[in-house]
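Input sequence (117 aa), recorded before submission:
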Amino acid sequence: QVQLVESGGGLVQPGESLRLSCAASGFTFREYDMSWYRQAPGKERDLVAVAQKSGEITNYEDSVTISRDNVKNTVSLQITNLKPDDTGVYYCNAAQSWNLGPLIGYWGQGTQVTVSS
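Predicted structure, token format:
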């Protein structure tokens, strides 16, 4: 079955960096758009970055960089200069069209990132 397993979250101080990873299995990874979302406490899940199956990359915030490895079936999110506003649960999403991800895509269980001094 489809599995998306996120890792790399934790408690960090403002200004530090993190690299989140999502390991995918159970589907043909290279045929799916991969996205990262963040859900801050009490808020909706927001799209942070997309790595399309075509190779096109879109980072929706200046401090994030998404990358994918179609050999290892992983997608990563590098976040630099972390701020308290970056706190939340980060989710990996897989969908054949990224814009339909929230509706019909696959989700991981999320990884918590807490930015606090």
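Checked by second reader. The chain has a mean pLDDT of 96.
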